[in-house]
Specification:
three-stranded antiparallel beta sheet, about 300 residues, Pseudouridine synthase, globular, eleven-stranded mixed beta sheet, alpha+beta
Length: about 300
């Protein structure tokens, strides 16, 4: 109710304000179970944003689009998105704090609004928000994507990835539909062979390579590590994947993976509705140089 009345607040933020005693109904501090009657006055006190203990850093960014509400960037492989233990500098947030001089308080702190993430060693298109209203709208859109809602062309969040798998998928196109959850033994990993939420990944082979293939993946749901897990669990893991990868059957692929030094995964396209104007926006990132080199080495192997 509060989030609906105040567009700048997400449901999670509204819930936190209630828990902190910053919402009153008819003069009384609101509780989660309090029923609101017609005519009750509701007062919400939104505190000023807390400073974030992360320093801006002059890290170069490849900006694909920027306006007063959001920024779209082409993230390089090797860049951590958000500061965490062991990664307090050199992150995308450090770079955005330096680049964006007009940030408002998002999520209760003075920081760029991270609404989705890419793994450190996954490259490609990402969007971050610069206002609370954009943050709330895109957070909801990405959450709907994770659940598999608003799917299809020109609907909701639409993301495609390019990857090199080894071996190639068993046919030119296909769809993987599984349940999805934490690995029962390795709790930092995920699995599509456990009971859990639904996960759906579509694939199409772009180019057959020697004992491998360049594959386009389109996500219908957005689970953590979804492409990496689905490919691995079905026997054609991403080349160079240090967590879900398989030992290559071919020595040349092992050599390519070692030289690449990361999973061969790139977020190639991202499309979404602008959170304020409603305009449909679409962005594309070309295959980065390291993945181009990996592909070229496998093409050479296939034709040599």
């Amino acid at each position: 109710m509060i989030a609906g009345a105040i567009s700048e607040l997400s449901r999670a933020q509204a819930q936190r304000l209630i828990e902190e005693g910053r919402v009153t109904v008819a003069g009384a501090v609101a509780a989660k179970s309090l029923r609101v009657k017609l005519g009750d006055a509701i007062e919400v006190v939104v505190p000023p944003p807390e400073p974030l203990e992360v320093e801006p850093e002059p890290i170069p960014l490849v900006v694909l689009f920027e306006d007063a509400e959001l920024i779209v960037i082409d993230k390089p492989a090797g860049m951590v998105v958000h500061p965490a233990a062991g990664h307090t500098r050199g992150t995308l947030v450090n770079a955005l704090l330096f680049h964006c001089k007009d940030l408002s308080g998002i999520g209760g702190v003075m920081r760029p609004g991270i609404v989705h993430r890419l793994d450190k060693d996954t490259s490609g298109v990402m969007v971050a928000t610069k206002t609370d209203r954009a943050h709330a709208a895109l957070t909801a859109a990405f959450a709907a994507k994770s659940r598999g809602e608003d799917v299809g062309p020109n609907k909701g969040i639409d993301r495609t990835y390019l990857a090199i798998t080894s071996p190639a998928p068993p046919k030119a196109t296909g769809t993987i539909r599984t349940t999805y959850g934490r690995h029962p033994v390795h709790r930092k990993k995920f699995s599509s062979k456990v009971a859990g939420k639904s996960a759906v990944t579509h694939w199409a082979i772009v180019e057959p390579l020697h004992e491998a293939a360049l594959v386009r993946f389109r996500l219908e749901t957005g689970r953590t590590h979804q492409i990496r897990v689905h490919a691995s669990d079905h026997g054609w893991a991403l080349v160079g994947d240090p967590v879900y990868g398989h030992k290559p059957r071919d020595a040349r692929i092992a050599e390519v993976a070692k030289k690449l030094g990361r999973q061969a995964l790139h977020a190639s396209t991202l499309a979404f509705d602008h959170p304020v104007s409603g305009e449909r926006l679409s962005f594309e990132s070309p295959l980065p140089e390291d993945l181009q080199a990996a592909r070229a080495a496998l093409v050479e192997r296939a034709t040599g």
